Amino acid sequence: MTDRLKNKVAIVTGAASGIGAASARLFASEGASVALADRDHEKMDEIVREINDAGGTAIGIGTDVGNEASIQRMVEQTVEEFGKLHIMYANAGISGRFDLETVNAEDFDKVMHVNLRGPFLCSKYAVPKIADSGGGSVIFTASELALVGSPGASVYSASKAGLIGMARGLALDFADANIRFNCICPGAVDTPMLWGEEKGERDAIEADISSRMPLGRVGKPEEIARSALYLASDDSSFVTGHALVVDGGWTVR
Ligand SMILES: NC(=O)c1ccc[n+]([C@@H]2O[C@H](COP(=O)([O-])OP(=O)(O)OC[C@H]3O[C@@H](n4cnc5c(N)ncnc54)[C@H](O)[C@@H]3O)[C@@H](O)[C@H]2O)c1
Q1: pLDDT at residue 1 tops 80
Q2: Which of 21, 167, 190, 253 lies deepest, with the highest CB count within 10 Å?
Q3: Is residue 139 part of a domain?
Q4: Interval 97-146: pLDDT, tens
Q5: Beta carbons of 245 and 231 less than 8 angstroms apart
Q6: What is the pLDDT averaged over residues 162-173?
Protein backbone atom coordinates (compact mmCIF):
# COMPACT_ATOMS: atom_id res chain seq x y z
CA MET A 1 0.00 0.00 0.00
CA THR A 2 1.34 3.41 -1.02
CA ASP A 3 -1.50 5.69 0.15
CA ARG A 4 -1.97 7.01 -3.37
CA LEU A 5 -5.60 7.89 -2.59
CA LYS A 6 -5.15 9.07 0.99
CA ASN A 7 -7.95 11.47 2.08
CA LYS A 8 -9.82 10.87 -1.19
CA VAL A 9 -13.45 9.82 -1.50
CA ALA A 10 -14.49 7.58 -4.39
CA ILE A 11 -17.67 6.09 -5.81
CA VAL A 12 -17.35 2.88 -7.83
CA THR A 13 -20.41 1.64 -9.70
CA GLY A 14 -20.77 -2.03 -10.60
CA ALA A 15 -18.66 -2.68 -7.49
CA ALA A 16 -20.26 -6.00 -6.50
CA SER A 17 -18.35 -8.00 -9.10
CA GLY A 18 -15.44 -8.18 -11.51
CA ILE A 19 -13.61 -4.98 -12.41
CA GLY A 20 -15.65 -2.78 -10.04
CA ALA A 21 -15.06 -5.02 -7.01
CA ALA A 22 -11.32 -5.22 -7.74
CA SER A 23 -11.17 -1.42 -8.12
CA ALA A 24 -13.10 -0.76 -4.90
CA ARG A 25 -10.71 -3.07 -3.00
CA LEU A 26 -7.63 -1.41 -4.54
CA PHE A 27 -8.87 2.16 -4.01
CA ALA A 28 -9.62 1.35 -0.35
CA SER A 29 -6.22 -0.30 0.14
CA GLU A 30 -4.66 2.92 -1.21
CA GLY A 31 -6.40 4.97 1.47
CA ALA A 32 -9.63 6.13 -0.19
CA SER A 33 -13.02 6.06 1.51
CA VAL A 34 -15.08 4.14 -1.03
CA ALA A 35 -18.82 4.05 -1.74
CA LEU A 36 -19.61 0.83 -3.58
CA ALA A 37 -22.72 1.12 -5.75
CA ASP A 38 -24.47 -1.82 -7.37
CA ARG A 39 -27.93 -3.23 -7.93
CA ASP A 40 -26.77 -6.58 -6.46
CA HIS A 41 -27.06 -5.71 -2.76
CA GLU A 42 -26.01 -9.09 -1.41
CA LYS A 43 -22.74 -9.38 -3.31
CA MET A 44 -22.00 -5.69 -2.78
CA ASP A 45 -22.41 -6.00 1.00
CA GLU A 46 -19.96 -8.93 1.02
CA ILE A 47 -17.26 -6.80 -0.64
CA VAL A 48 -18.00 -3.88 1.70
CA ARG A 49 -17.56 -6.19 4.73
CA GLU A 50 -14.35 -7.59 3.29
CA ILE A 51 -12.87 -4.11 2.77
CA ASN A 52 -13.83 -2.90 6.25
CA ASP A 53 -12.54 -6.12 7.86
CA ALA A 54 -9.21 -5.52 6.11
CA GLY A 55 -8.98 -2.06 7.75
CA GLY A 56 -10.35 -0.02 4.84
CA THR A 57 -13.32 2.35 4.80
CA ALA A 58 -16.29 1.41 2.63
CA ILE A 59 -20.05 1.72 2.46
CA GLY A 60 -22.52 0.05 0.10
CA ILE A 61 -25.29 1.96 -1.65
CA GLY A 62 -27.90 -0.05 -3.54
CA THR A 63 -28.00 1.69 -6.91
CA ASP A 64 -29.52 1.17 -10.34
CA VAL A 65 -27.50 3.23 -12.81
CA GLY A 66 -30.40 2.92 -15.23
CA ASN A 67 -32.42 5.14 -12.89
CA GLU A 68 -31.71 8.87 -12.49
CA ALA A 69 -33.16 9.25 -8.98
CA SER A 70 -31.08 6.29 -7.83
CA ILE A 71 -27.88 7.87 -9.17
CA GLN A 72 -28.69 11.19 -7.52
CA ARG A 73 -29.27 9.39 -4.20
CA MET A 74 -25.98 7.50 -4.60
CA VAL A 75 -24.00 10.73 -4.90
CA GLU A 76 -25.90 12.49 -2.09
CA GLN A 77 -25.51 9.55 0.29
CA THR A 78 -21.77 9.37 -0.40
CA VAL A 79 -21.28 13.05 0.39
CA GLU A 80 -23.50 12.80 3.50
CA GLU A 81 -21.34 9.92 4.74
CA PHE A 82 -17.85 11.11 3.78
CA GLY A 83 -18.30 14.89 3.37
CA LYS A 84 -16.49 15.11 -0.01
CA LEU A 85 -16.17 13.45 -3.40
CA HIS A 86 -13.05 13.28 -5.60
CA ILE A 87 -13.35 10.17 -7.78
CA MET A 88 -16.34 8.94 -9.76
CA TYR A 89 -15.61 5.58 -11.39
CA ALA A 90 -18.69 4.89 -13.55
CA ASN A 91 -17.92 1.27 -14.33
CA ALA A 92 -21.26 -0.59 -14.26
CA GLY A 93 -22.30 -1.95 -17.62
CA ILE A 94 -24.21 -4.72 -19.32
CA SER A 95 -23.36 -6.75 -22.39
CA GLY A 96 -25.69 -7.45 -25.27
CA ARG A 97 -25.37 -9.22 -28.60
CA PHE A 98 -28.17 -8.75 -31.08
CA ASP A 99 -28.99 -9.39 -34.74
CA LEU A 100 -30.13 -6.27 -36.55
CA GLU A 101 -33.08 -8.23 -37.97
CA THR A 102 -34.50 -9.20 -34.59
CA VAL A 103 -33.26 -6.49 -32.21
CA ASN A 104 -35.93 -4.07 -31.09
CA ALA A 105 -35.81 -0.50 -29.83
CA GLU A 106 -36.25 -1.66 -26.22
CA ASP A 107 -33.08 -3.81 -26.42
CA PHE A 108 -31.18 -0.83 -27.83
CA ASP A 109 -32.53 1.51 -25.15
CA LYS A 110 -31.69 -0.91 -22.31
CA VAL A 111 -28.01 -1.14 -23.28
CA MET A 112 -27.73 2.62 -23.87
CA HIS A 113 -29.55 3.38 -20.62
CA VAL A 114 -27.09 1.48 -18.44
CA ASN A 115 -23.86 1.83 -20.45
CA LEU A 116 -24.05 5.43 -21.72
CA ARG A 117 -26.86 7.35 -20.01
CA GLY A 118 -25.80 5.88 -16.64
CA PRO A 119 -22.22 7.26 -16.76
CA PHE A 120 -23.58 10.56 -18.14
CA LEU A 121 -25.91 10.95 -15.14
CA CYS A 122 -23.18 9.78 -12.73
CA SER A 123 -21.07 12.65 -14.14
CA LYS A 124 -23.93 15.13 -13.94
CA TYR A 125 -24.53 14.54 -10.24
CA ALA A 126 -20.92 13.89 -9.20
CA VAL A 127 -19.26 16.85 -10.95
CA PRO A 128 -20.63 19.64 -8.68
CA LYS A 129 -19.54 17.66 -5.61
CA ILE A 130 -16.09 16.98 -7.06
CA ALA A 131 -15.75 20.68 -7.93
CA ASP A 132 -16.72 21.62 -4.34
CA SER A 133 -14.02 19.20 -3.12
CA GLY A 134 -11.30 20.97 -5.15
CA GLY A 135 -11.33 18.77 -8.27
CA GLY A 136 -10.72 15.13 -9.08
CA SER A 137 -11.17 12.38 -11.62
CA VAL A 138 -14.06 10.80 -13.49
CA ILE A 139 -13.43 7.43 -15.15
CA PHE A 140 -15.65 5.43 -17.50
CA THR A 141 -15.19 1.75 -18.31
CA ALA A 142 -15.51 1.66 -22.10
CA SER A 143 -14.22 -1.41 -23.97
CA GLU A 144 -11.89 -2.60 -26.70
CA LEU A 145 -15.18 -2.95 -28.61
CA ALA A 146 -15.38 0.84 -28.67
CA LEU A 147 -12.40 0.63 -31.04
CA VAL A 148 -12.88 -2.57 -33.04
CA GLY A 149 -15.96 -4.43 -34.24
CA SER A 150 -17.27 -7.79 -33.08
CA PRO A 151 -20.13 -9.77 -34.64
CA GLY A 152 -23.48 -8.98 -33.02
CA ALA A 153 -22.00 -6.32 -30.75
CA SER A 154 -22.97 -3.17 -32.67
CA VAL A 155 -25.21 -1.78 -29.93
CA TYR A 156 -22.72 -2.55 -27.15
CA SER A 157 -19.88 -1.07 -29.26
CA ALA A 158 -21.91 2.08 -29.89
CA SER A 159 -22.58 2.51 -26.17
CA LYS A 160 -18.88 2.12 -25.34
CA ALA A 161 -17.65 4.33 -28.20
CA GLY A 162 -20.10 6.95 -26.94
CA LEU A 163 -18.27 7.00 -23.61
CA ILE A 164 -15.01 7.96 -25.34
CA GLY A 165 -16.69 10.87 -27.11
CA MET A 166 -18.41 11.91 -23.89
CA ALA A 167 -15.17 11.82 -21.88
CA ARG A 168 -13.46 14.04 -24.46
CA GLY A 169 -16.26 16.60 -24.39
CA LEU A 170 -16.52 16.68 -20.59
CA ALA A 171 -12.72 16.85 -20.27
CA LEU A 172 -12.86 20.21 -22.05
CA ASP A 173 -15.99 21.41 -20.23
CA PHE A 174 -14.49 20.82 -16.77
CA ALA A 175 -10.74 21.33 -17.22
CA ASP A 176 -11.04 24.71 -15.49
CA ALA A 177 -12.65 23.02 -12.48
CA ASN A 178 -9.65 20.64 -12.27
CA ILE A 179 -11.80 17.62 -13.08
CA ARG A 180 -10.26 15.07 -15.44
CA PHE A 181 -12.35 12.65 -17.53
CA ASN A 182 -10.83 9.46 -18.95
CA CYS A 183 -11.88 6.04 -20.22
CA ILE A 184 -10.42 2.59 -19.79
CA CYS A 185 -10.87 0.22 -22.73
CA PRO A 186 -10.44 -3.30 -21.34
CA GLY A 187 -10.02 -6.33 -23.53
CA ALA A 188 -11.30 -9.75 -22.48
CA VAL A 189 -11.21 -9.86 -18.66
CA ASP A 190 -12.02 -12.83 -16.44
CA THR A 191 -15.35 -11.70 -14.93
CA PRO A 192 -18.89 -13.12 -15.03
CA MET A 193 -19.65 -10.77 -17.93
CA LEU A 194 -17.05 -12.38 -20.20
CA TRP A 195 -18.36 -15.89 -19.68
CA GLY A 196 -22.03 -14.88 -19.70
CA GLU A 197 -24.58 -17.61 -20.23
CA GLU A 198 -22.02 -19.88 -21.84
CA LYS A 199 -20.34 -20.75 -18.52
CA GLY A 200 -20.35 -24.46 -19.35
CA GLU A 201 -18.04 -23.82 -22.28
CA ARG A 202 -15.76 -21.53 -20.33
CA ASP A 203 -12.57 -23.58 -20.85
CA ALA A 204 -13.09 -23.75 -24.61
CA ILE A 205 -13.88 -20.03 -24.85
CA GLU A 206 -10.88 -19.10 -22.71
CA ALA A 207 -8.56 -21.29 -24.81
CA ASP A 208 -9.91 -19.73 -28.01
CA ILE A 209 -9.51 -16.11 -26.78
CA SER A 210 -6.06 -16.85 -25.31
CA SER A 211 -4.84 -18.40 -28.56
CA ARG A 212 -5.72 -15.19 -30.44
CA MET A 213 -4.54 -12.77 -27.73
CA PRO A 214 -1.02 -11.36 -28.31
CA LEU A 215 -0.21 -11.68 -24.59
CA GLY A 216 -1.61 -15.23 -24.65
CA ARG A 217 -4.27 -15.01 -21.93
CA VAL A 218 -7.37 -13.14 -20.78
CA GLY A 219 -6.89 -10.25 -18.35
CA LYS A 220 -7.53 -10.19 -14.61
CA PRO A 221 -9.92 -7.68 -12.99
CA GLU A 222 -7.00 -6.50 -10.82
CA GLU A 223 -5.10 -5.47 -13.96
CA ILE A 224 -7.94 -3.14 -14.96
CA ALA A 225 -8.22 -1.91 -11.36
CA ARG A 226 -4.56 -0.83 -11.46
CA SER A 227 -5.29 1.25 -14.57
CA ALA A 228 -8.27 2.80 -12.78
CA LEU A 229 -5.99 3.61 -9.83
CA TYR A 230 -3.60 5.36 -12.21
CA LEU A 231 -6.42 7.46 -13.67
CA ALA A 232 -7.96 8.13 -10.23
CA SER A 233 -4.72 9.25 -8.60
CA ASP A 234 -2.39 12.20 -9.12
CA ASP A 235 -0.08 9.85 -11.06
CA SER A 236 -2.21 10.84 -14.07
CA SER A 237 -2.50 14.54 -13.14
CA PHE A 238 -1.76 15.68 -16.75
CA VAL A 239 -4.00 13.09 -18.44
CA THR A 240 -7.51 14.03 -19.53
CA GLY A 241 -9.83 13.09 -22.40
CA HIS A 242 -7.83 9.90 -22.90
CA ALA A 243 -8.94 6.33 -23.70
CA LEU A 244 -6.48 3.94 -22.05
CA VAL A 245 -6.44 0.57 -23.83
CA VAL A 246 -5.72 -2.36 -21.49
CA ASP A 247 -6.37 -5.34 -23.72
CA GLY A 248 -3.37 -7.68 -23.87
CA GLY A 249 -2.66 -6.37 -27.36
CA TRP A 250 -5.99 -7.45 -28.91
CA THR A 251 -6.59 -4.20 -30.82
CA VAL A 252 -3.00 -4.01 -32.07
CA ARG A 253 -3.65 -6.71 -34.66
N1 LIG B 1 -15.17 -8.49 -18.65
C2 LIG B 1 -14.81 -8.05 -19.82
O3 LIG B 1 -14.25 -8.80 -20.65
C4 LIG B 1 -15.04 -6.59 -20.19
C5 LIG B 1 -14.39 -6.09 -21.34
C6 LIG B 1 -14.56 -4.77 -21.69
C7 LIG B 1 -15.36 -3.94 -20.92
N8 LIG B 1 -16.00 -4.43 -19.82
C9 LIG B 1 -16.82 -3.51 -19.05
O10 LIG B 1 -16.37 -3.52 -17.71
C11 LIG B 1 -17.43 -3.10 -16.85
C12 LIG B 1 -17.50 -4.04 -15.66
O13 LIG B 1 -17.86 -5.31 -16.12
P14 LIG B 1 -17.30 -6.67 -15.49
O15 LIG B 1 -16.58 -7.38 -16.56
O16 LIG B 1 -16.62 -6.39 -14.21
O17 LIG B 1 -18.68 -7.46 -15.31
P18 LIG B 1 -19.41 -8.08 -14.04
O19 LIG B 1 -20.63 -8.71 -14.58
O20 LIG B 1 -18.46 -8.88 -13.23
O21 LIG B 1 -19.81 -6.79 -13.15
C22 LIG B 1 -20.76 -5.86 -13.56
C23 LIG B 1 -21.42 -5.30 -12.32
O24 LIG B 1 -22.28 -4.25 -12.74
C25 LIG B 1 -23.49 -4.35 -12.02
N26 LIG B 1 -24.57 -3.71 -12.78
C27 LIG B 1 -25.08 -4.07 -13.99
N28 LIG B 1 -26.10 -3.27 -14.31
C29 LIG B 1 -26.25 -2.39 -13.29
C30 LIG B 1 -27.15 -1.32 -13.03
N31 LIG B 1 -28.14 -1.01 -13.88
N32 LIG B 1 -27.01 -0.63 -11.88
C33 LIG B 1 -26.03 -0.94 -11.00
N34 LIG B 1 -25.17 -1.95 -11.17
C35 LIG B 1 -25.27 -2.66 -12.31
C36 LIG B 1 -23.72 -5.85 -11.87
O37 LIG B 1 -24.62 -6.14 -10.81
C38 LIG B 1 -22.30 -6.34 -11.60
O39 LIG B 1 -22.00 -6.34 -10.21
C40 LIG B 1 -18.67 -3.05 -17.72
O41 LIG B 1 -18.96 -1.71 -18.06
C42 LIG B 1 -18.27 -3.84 -18.95
O43 LIG B 1 -19.02 -3.44 -20.09
C44 LIG B 1 -15.83 -5.74 -19.44
Answers
A1: no
A2: 21
A3: yes
A4: 999 999 999 999 999 999 999 999 999 999 999 999 999 999 999 999 99
A5: no
A6: 98
CA of 94 to the centre of ligand 1 (A): 6
Among 18, 13, 21, 127, residue whose Cα is nearest residue 70 = 13
Using DSSP's 3-state secondary structure scheme, residue 217 falls into coil
Residue 2 lies in a domain: no
Alpha carbon of 191 to ligand 1 centroid (Å): 8
CATH number of the domain to which 195 belongs: 3.40.50.720
Residues 6+ apart with CB under 8 A from 161: 142, 146, 147
Q: Is the confidence at residue 205, as pLDDT, over 90?
A: no
Q: Whose CA is nearest to atom 34 of ligand 1?
A: 38
Which percentage of the chain shows pLDDT scores above 70?
98
Residue 101 Cα to ligand 1 midpoint, Å, equals 26
Ligand 1 pocket at CB < 6 A:
13-14, 16-20, 38-40, 63-66, 91-94, 114, 141, 143, 186, 188-189, 191-194
Domain of residue 109, residue span: 9-248
Give the chain's domain count.
1
Kindly state whether residue 1 falls inside one of the protein's structural domains: no
Strand duo 87-90 + 9-13: pairing = parallel
Whether 89 is a known active-site residue: answer: no
pTM (2 d.p.): 0.98
Q: Which of 173, 123, 160, 125 minimizes the C-alpha distance to 245?
A: 160
User: For position 199, what pLDDT does the model report?
Assistant: 60
